[in-house]
Design a protein that fits this description.
The complex is a heterotrimer of chains A (about 190), B (about 350) and C (about 375). Chain A has 2 helices and 10 strands. Chain A has about 190 residues and is mainly beta. Chain A is globular. In chain B, a hairpin with a 2-residue loop joins strand 5 and strand 6. In chain B, helix 3 crosses helix 11, helix 6 packs across helix 10 and helix 9 crosses helix 10. Chain B has 11 helices and 13 strands. In chain B, the strands form 2 sheets. In chain B, strands 1, 2, 3, 4, 7, 8, 9, 10, 11, 12 and 13 form an 11-stranded mixed beta sheet that branches. In chain B, strands 5-6 form a two-stranded antiparallel ribbon. Chain C has about 375 residues and is an alpha/beta fold. In chain C, strand 5 and strand 6 form a beta hairpin. Chain C is globular, with a radius of gyration of 19 Å. The two termini of chain C are about 15 Å apart. The chains are: A mainly beta (about 190), B alpha/beta (about 350), C alpha/beta (about 375). Chains in contact: A-B, A-C, B-C.
Amino acid sequence: MSEAETTVEDDPNAPVRFMQQVISLDYVVRTSPMNRYFGRKLRDRQIVGHKCPSCGIVYVPPRGFCPICVVETSEADEVEISDKGIVTSWTVLTPIHYHGQTEREDYALASILLEGADGTIGQQRLVDVELDQIRMGMRVEAVWAEESDTERGGDVRGFGFGNAIAGFRATEGPDAPPEAYEKHTL
Amino acid sequence: MRPVSIVSFAQSGGRVDVEETETQMLYPVVSEAIERSGIPRQEIGFTCSGSADYLAGAPFAFVGNLEATGAWPPISESHVEMDGAWALYEAWVRLQHGDVDVALVFSSGISSRGNLREVLCLQNDPYYLMPLWADHVSLAALQARAYLDASGAKESDLAEVASRSRRNALSNPNALLSGEQGPDELLAEPYVVSPLRASDCPPVTDGAAAAILVAGDRAREVCDRPAWIRGIDHRIDPHYIGVRDLSRSESARVAAQHAGVGDAPVEVAELAAAFSHEELILREALGLGDEVEINPSGGALVSNPMMVSGLTRIGEAFRQINENGRHRAVGHAASGPCLQQNLVCVLEGD
Amino acid sequence: MAERCAVIGVGQTHHTKVRDDVSLAGLLREASVRALEDAEMTWRDIDAVVIGTAPDSFEGVMMPELYLADALGAAGKPIMRVHTAGSVGGSTAIVAAHLVQSGVRERVLTVAFEKQSEGDTTWGLSGGRSGGVGAGGYFAPHIRAYIERSKAPEYVGWMVAVKDRKNALKNPYAHLKVPDITLEMVRDSPMVWEPVRRLESCPASDGACAMVLTNEAGGDRAEVPAWVHGTAIRSELGQFPGRDPVNPKGGQDCAADVYAQAGITDPKNDFDVVECYVPFSWYEPMWMENLGFAPIGDGWKMTEEGETEMDGALPVNASGGVLSSNPIGASGMLRFAEAALQVRGLAGEHQIDGVRTALGHAYGGASQFFAMWVLRSTKP
């Protein structure tokens, strides 16, 4: 399936097939007021969610509105969320190399349903775990950044917990039964 | 064609350096447009939106914006990577089928997080033009020069447009810029790219807008003074600026012709002229004489949220009919360097 | 009442990893010229163009309709660009159909494309950040959930891969051709996003697909029109507590809508062929359930029992599907176009006998955007 490519090194008279042009554009990533509020709480090791005043669904992280009822939520709707929960789904990734990719080793990302939340937080790193030992329903707890001795600090993409939480590790206790996770695949 | 009207319009207004997410900026605007329409959200039969990934610097940037619309249960919804004016066009087309009566249109864009002059360079032919990094302001300057040379207009004519736009904007809380500077004062400013001065160019603007379209008589039940879309058309010119006459906008002329601008006198026109010379070119292309009031809102020159500007012009034309008792108005949208693509919409009150 | 709409021209490129013999414009023209020739039309006959493609960052061209206008004969005409994530090829065809059905335009050229070799798709998907998981990384947990819920045996995924790769051998335009493909080969291919293996995944392709759509008068004049009996699109919130991405409501609702329009009451028997968007092999059984062809939990049995093979009760992806060719922006339109080819009897070596009714299906985003159409050889 590989095309034979003549490079300039092979034959300077060969036709030019590709010219590489790297375009670099810089963007400012802004933290919204809601991000900052969530982040301030994380600094105090508190995970908060917002409970929709209309349907009662608890969103973590809070978005400032319930997208189902289309009503706003605010600090008045704040509820406390545990830093413990279960894995509802996961995958083990073999990193694909691309410009800017720093991941090199296989790693696991999971959707975590924290106690008190109605929805999962996706793409959370699982740490200190054998990649072939992960199960749905596995009990986990957050590894807060200060405790972690890993160099990389959590999620640099700004999703979920930012770099406040380095990942989730397995904890004691029997796996949760299917009823606990089957409706929380996402 | 089935008669379709705009019954409500809402806008965030021109802002800059917004802190909230695009979705959070959009959310109150969409809610307001729906509330003002008096039609329950569940009765919206089709939704169409406009936005651009490259403004956000992320792929699929529009997906998050679904959260501002209440897309549960799932909705019949589509998206164009274009100004919301084209989303409005798609909604108008959809409403012609007869099975759906109400459509929601919205668009958003945050331009202030990237360098817009660099970002828009990517709109050019990737092989021959993009590597030149010919930004949209420089290309606009080429068009301005071509126009001045061909028409005999002067830089002071450009300054008149800029001055009038800023003065109009004084009474428009949604405009980002406004001011009382006269043409002479603006003429004294240095060039940004000759012959364009800063006041001849639009400010980098963030914003969002939304509108509700209704087909048939229902419009009169929910709205005292709906604005009927009597004609709507869009056309595009060749991409390479060397193969067209930059002093004229052929695509705007043809779109206006097919939209029926010339069928009856126009009282007011909101033109998405982001640069001052563009207004003069568009007036000629659309055949708008001195009796037509141009851009009472101040237009895109003073407030230019990318992907929203065109929809806002149509929205402001709607407001002229709905709030100001005007009878016949034109809304215009543009896309691409040097007015490459143009959309013209003719609105009438009952 | 909506005007009738017919597909009278279909064209596509030879999809492959790198098309370094054509520019982006050239790629689209290749597909467009084939579609125009099939429709016995020239560029002049077209009165509107609708293009669709996935994120601009895949090629680094922002709003490509601006650059492509000249190449697509669109100067002086209306042109629009649709973007609905992975389903875009399908929704683009639907927007084009809307133009005809509304009576606003009579002959619309619609083109969808991706030239992935001119960018870096994984980088594009990552938003320029490290840790991008790619499409497979996102869908893998959903696939795992399906396998767990349905208790399907692991070889079902391999069977779909073998079927689609064998079908591709009969499609001159398909990208990936693995003539000696076997279940063992799929089973032994590297794991990429657990539980998805490399040979169960789609390739990254350069490719374009084009169609010419016209009204009733135009369809009547054509030798073999494919008549549009229904079109539907749905979007669903991507993330909220309790959402089911395995059997999404958006997909169910979209199917119900298009079936109602087309008078489909027994999908498995009413359709003669299905072209459905399967980028990772397990999506075949998942969509069989979501589209109502099999009861929930039993979609995998259709695969296991050979029902989705070319000689089965309901051939799925006789073209080789997305697993064989995946120019992302075009993939949805390829499904719609292959459905048209089947109905028109023009699918060549991968033609299924006696096709009268076909389904074209596309999905995208977080399994949240759906586009579908139903075509028949007879007028609605």
